């Protein structure tokens, strides 16, 4: 390690060897500071029309050496930006920092849809124009712009989870799809691994534990651009399986902007301004928003509120040897999810409230070095986020029978229990304080090997997740659920989760004749830290190799009629580690009634219980891993772009709750043997006969038991804007086929009662208990920009051609059965006819495994934006302005469908 750092130091300070002066510099987007690679830099000596040329590298840097003193004309050209030109006097080594300004919007250049990436992997880029046009309330609205995406009515009353490249809606057993999608904001990941906010025994499903990020909490008004990587991302990004959402916020001077939005489900107000403190070198961005929404506009008792605020400082400085960009940010996000009971409809007085407050601090340094060494840049990013969250629920509990109070705390404890009141109020609070820390350092590397150009990176990152909250706080004598299997536990007692990752990647650019290639190959190695030796993950290193190849074929034709062709593909492995909840679940408490003697005289009553407690940790739990591959073809001709991608994904060890069993022996006292005439108090257990019985208890435990197989085709076509009608046509869509199933055997108990007692056997089923789901949809968008009128409007024909679901076949027969002692036995042919074991065979109706298909449906959506000079913009939208939902027959029954419009409008002011 010392030799490594000495080598790096020498590379940074080694002087140039070329004779004469050196002109070096960087080229970046003046608005965002994003380096621009492949920009053409030309250097014209005074009085000469023959320039020297250079192409900027991945860090936007260029260098000219061996220059004689004098005046030189520098010209920079890059697609989509104005040409930059300036005369520079060279008297010695000189450094330039060049900021390119985007060309002014014209009718040809306004884009209100997502643009497919021109890189080697499948990704969609959503710019500011597209976001303004769709008028989002939260980040989830942006997903409608992806191939396969569809505009939906906002569901702000429940968590919004992301699903990429999936057909249909799956159950909670497949939440790895959203948990495995990484979100980064300005290079800083948003971690949810320490989230433990769940109310035990609650029927309100607002928990996000081990489910991923709630997109309702992400505002869109301060976002400059979003890149959603559906394919194989760089190895720089880890702890993901499904995809990457890379958010870049505004970091330039802007006028004061205010936005007011209203629709039938909510209201939103936002404001922001970018202040130039010293030219373009130092900028302070301040913004915030407030959102209030209801799941049902008719229901005033359930609402969701969000408030955000952000303070971001960006500075840039240049020396003769390097340029430095420094970013500092302080962010706040708060939300309140609240429900209460209508007093006129019920006297119960039930309440639920969930509050979320997140404070995040981040700092990042980006150096670009001008010396022509192997080290081109250095990035260091550090962040710290602290959440303060609380859930509170009040519930009136009514019982219709005597229920013993479950208060046992130790394993094997026999104790007498009191009875719960027939009516009581349960109050539960969950106090969570998740903290996330993140540090990353990346070296940008470059050079040449013969005709091959290298643009590489190497680095490491470290993440830390800890919850300092008090956890579940409630009176165990007044549980929310009478059959409570939990006890209060402080979240701060749970160990922290820590991970260290190393990564290295090289992008090789070379030409073979008229063919151009970019081969990006890298590897990421991740090691979980701070984990006990008992875990299978202890000491393990998980390696993710990833490769993307981009092949630009020779163009066909010349000039404006030229056809450009490109083939790209990639393959890679992606790994997501378990969350704290999955690694350290709550212990399970099971309270068994041994004697329930309940005469009319309360002084003679006695209820005796036996408490079992066991740790529910699965030490064999390992990270979920997904293998992806894809291939893409694209072409461009006369302003037309077309791309089509075929992909496959294969996961066999996603996280889910699997059923396990435990044999619990207990005493079964004979209450009929007690003579109440001889009692002067509760009966003495020594005088009561009993038999020993065993309860075969099934319970849930986290395991690697989910299988998700994806395959599909994504496509997108965009035309040039047709000048006669100022309209561009964009067509995108996707066919998805997703197989959801278990990848491990399942234990199940039968629900039948024999002789008044439940069946005391458990079956083991080695089958695929899931379904195959498919869907095919297209979106055809006509967007028109009338520049002279300041009017932009789009009409989208959103067609869902079909959706289908088909259960995976199984014969319903278990491979083994478990008796009351916990012993497993093979399930034989004779067992199918056994009086009790036959009930373990699952039976299905004749049509159960048939494929169910929902046919064609179409919505017509309209969006329009009107600019009033430079100061105001008025926009409106109507989803499902027109709809076509034909009737269809399902299992011989006529099904009728209908849809209601969803509309809203907003006003934007600029000062």
Automatic annotation (TrEMBL):
Keyword Nucleotide-binding carried by entry: no
Family matches, as Pfam families: CarboxypepD_reg, Plug
Domain of life: Bacteria
Signal sequence bounds: 1-19
Alphabetical keyword list: Cell outer membrane, Membrane, Receptor, Signal, Transmembrane, Transmembrane beta strand, Transport
InterPro entries referenced in this protein's UniProt entry, alphabetically: Beta-barrel_TonB_sf (IPR036942), Carb-bd-like_fold (IPR013784), Plug_dom (IPR012910), Plug_dom_sf (IPR037066), TonB-dep_rcpt-like (IPR039426)
GO cellular component: cell outer membrane
GO biological process, one term: siderophore transmembrane transport
GO molecular function, one term: carbohydrate binding
Key word Transport present: yes
Annotated TonB-dependent receptor plug domain residues: 119-241
Membrane-related topology note: Multi-pass membrane protein
Location of this chain's protein in the cell: Cell outer membrane
Name the record gives this protein: Outer membrane cobalamin receptor protein
């Amino acid at each position: 390690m010392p030799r490594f750092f000495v080598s790096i130091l020498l590379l940074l300070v080694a002087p140039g060897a070329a004779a004469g002066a050196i002109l070096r510099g960087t080229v970046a987007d003046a608005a965002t500071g994003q380096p621009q690679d492949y920009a053409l830099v030309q250097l014209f000596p005074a009085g000469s029309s023959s320039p020297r040329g250079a192409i900027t590298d991945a860090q936007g840097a260029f260098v000219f050496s061996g220059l004689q003193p004098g005046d030189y004309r520098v010209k920079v050209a890059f697609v989509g930006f104005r040409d930059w030109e300036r005369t520079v006097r060279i008297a010695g080594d000189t450094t330039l920092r060049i900021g390119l300004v985007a060309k002014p919007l014209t009718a040809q250049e306004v884009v209100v849809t997502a643009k497919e990436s021109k890189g080697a992997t499948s990704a969609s880029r959503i710019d500011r124009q597209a976001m303004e046009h769709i008028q989002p309330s939260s980040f989830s609205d942006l997903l409608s712009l992806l191939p396969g995406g569809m505009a939906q009515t906002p569901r702000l009353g429940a968590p919004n989870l992301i699903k990429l490249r999936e057909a249909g809606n799956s159950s909670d057993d497949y939440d790895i799809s959203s948990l495995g999608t990484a979100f980064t904001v300005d290079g800083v990941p948003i971690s949810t691994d320490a989230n433990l906010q769940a109310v035990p025994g609650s029927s309100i499903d607002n928990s996000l534990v081990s489910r991923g990020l709630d997109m309702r909490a992400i505002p869109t008004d301060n976002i400059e651009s979003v890149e959603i990587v559906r394919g194989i991302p760089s190895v720089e990004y880890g702890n993901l399986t499904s995809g990457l959402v890379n958010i870049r916020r505004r970091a330039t001077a802007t006028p004061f902007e205010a936005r007011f939005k209203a629709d039938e489900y909510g209201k939103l107000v936002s404001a922001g301004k970018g202040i130039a403190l010293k030219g373009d070198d130092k900028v302070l961005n301040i913004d915030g928003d407030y959102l209030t929404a209801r799941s049902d506009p008719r229901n005033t008792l359930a609402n969701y509120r969000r408030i955000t605020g952000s303070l971001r400082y960006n500075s840039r400085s240049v020396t003769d040897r390097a340029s430095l960009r420094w970013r500092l940010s302080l962010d706040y996000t708060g939300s309140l999810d609240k429900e209460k009971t209508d007093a006129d409809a019920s006297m119960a007085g039930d309440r639920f409230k969930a509050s979320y407050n997140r404070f995040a601090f981040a700092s990042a340094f980006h150096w670009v070095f001008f010396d022509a060494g192997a080290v081109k840049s250095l990035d260091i990013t550090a962040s710290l986020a602290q959440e303060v969250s609380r859930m509170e629920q009040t519930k009136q509990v009514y019982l219709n029978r005597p229920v013993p109070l479950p208060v046992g705390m130790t394993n094997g404890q026999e104790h007498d229990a009191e009875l719960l009141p027939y009516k009581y109020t349960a109050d539960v609070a969950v106090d969570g304080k998740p903290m996330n820390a993140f540090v990353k350092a990346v070296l940008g590397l470059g050079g040449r090997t013969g005709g091959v150009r290298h643009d590489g990176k190497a680095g490491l990152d470290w993440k830390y997740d800890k919850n300092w909250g008090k956890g579940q706080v409630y009176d165990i004598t007044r549980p929310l659920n009478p059959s409570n299997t939990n006890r209060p536990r402080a979240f701060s007692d749970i160990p922290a989760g820590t991970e260290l990752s190393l990564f290295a990647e090289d992008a090789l650019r070379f030409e073979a004749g008229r063919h151009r290639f970019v081969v990006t190959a890298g590897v990421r190695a991740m090691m979980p830290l701070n984990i006990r030796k008992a875990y299978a993950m202890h000491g393990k290193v998980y390696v993710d190799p990833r490769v993307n190849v981009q092949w630009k074929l020779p163009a066909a034709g010349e000039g404006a009629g030229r056809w450009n062709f490109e083939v790209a593909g990639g393959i890679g492995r992606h790994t997501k580690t378990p969350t704290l909840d999955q690694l350290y679940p709550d212990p399970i408490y099971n309270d068994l009634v041994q004697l329930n003697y309940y005469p009319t005289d309360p002084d003679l009553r006695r209820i005796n219980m036996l408490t079992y407690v066991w740790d529910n940790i699965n030490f064999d739990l390992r990270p979920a891993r997904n293998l992806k591959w894809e291939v893409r073809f694209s072409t461009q001709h006369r302003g037309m772009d077309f791309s089509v991608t075929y992909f496959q994904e294969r996961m066999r060890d996603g996280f889910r709750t699997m059923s396990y069993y435990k044999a619990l022996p207990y005493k079964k006292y004979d209450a009929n043997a007690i003579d109440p005439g001889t009692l002067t108090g509760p009966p003495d257990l020594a005088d009561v006969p009993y038999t020993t019985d065993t309860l075969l208890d099934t319970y849930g435990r986290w395991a690697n038991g989910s299988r998700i197989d994806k395959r599909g085709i994504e496509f997108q076509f965009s035309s040039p804007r047709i000048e006669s009608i100022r309209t561009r046509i964009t067509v995108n869509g996707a066919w998805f086929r997703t197989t959801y199933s278990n990848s491990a055997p399942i234990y199940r108990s039968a629900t039948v009662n024999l002789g008044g007692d439940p069946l005391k056997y458990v079956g083991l089923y080695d089958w695929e208990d899931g379904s195959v789901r498919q869907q095919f949809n297209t979106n055809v968008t006509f967007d028109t920009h009338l520049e002279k009128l300041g009017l932009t409007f789009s009409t989208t024909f959103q067609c869902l051609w079909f959706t289908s679901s088909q259960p995976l076949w199984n014969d319903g027969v278990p491979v083994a059965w478990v008796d009351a002692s916990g012993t497993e036995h093979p399930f034989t042919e004779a067992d199918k006819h056994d009086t009790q074991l036959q009930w373990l065979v699952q039976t299905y109706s004749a049509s159960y495994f048939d494929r169910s298909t929902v046919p064609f449906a179409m919505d017509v959506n309209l969006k329009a934006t009107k600019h009033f000079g430079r100061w105001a913009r008025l926009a409106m939208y109507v989803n499902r302005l027109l709809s076509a939902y034909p009737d269809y027959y399902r299992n011989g029954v006529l099904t009728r469908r209908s849809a209601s419009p969803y509309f809203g409008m907003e006003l934007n002011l600029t000062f």
